[in-house]
């Protein structure tokens, strides 16, 4: 994902920035969201997320934490 800035957080991947008009923005990702799952796989680091995305799935299901909420977003 190169739609903004990501930071390993130990318990997920924190979004530092989302580029306007990017697939991440279109999916609804926001600054300070934390990605904790990708396509049903738990991810704690950017390296783990890249392994899941290496298969180049057509649709990416993200499990994120926003504040106190757990949300699911779809990216194409």
UniProtKB/TrEMBL annotation:
Keywords of the record: Hydrolase, Protease
UniProt EC number: 3.4.21.-, 3.4.21.107
SMART domains cross-referenced by the UniProt entry: PDZ
Top-level EC class: hydrolase
GO molecular function: endopeptidase activity
Domain PDZ: 1-68
InterPro entries: PDZ, PDZ_sf
Superkingdom to which the source organism belongs: Bacteria
Pfam families given in the database record: PDZ (PF00595)
GO aspect biological process, one term: proteolysis
Keyword set includes Hydrolase: yes
Keyword Cytoplasm: no
Name the record gives this protein: Serine endoprotease
Protein's organism: Escherichia coli
């Amino acid at each position: 994902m190169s739609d903004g800035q990501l930071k390993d957080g130990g318990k997920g991947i924190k979004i530092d920035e989302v580029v306007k008009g990017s697939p991440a923005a279109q999916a609804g990702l926001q600054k300070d969201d934390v990605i904790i799952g990708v396509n049903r796989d738990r991810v704690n680091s950017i390296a783990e997320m890249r392994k899941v995305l290496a298969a180049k799935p057509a649709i990416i299901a993200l499990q994120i934490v926003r504040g106190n909420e757990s949300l699911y977003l779809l990216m194409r």
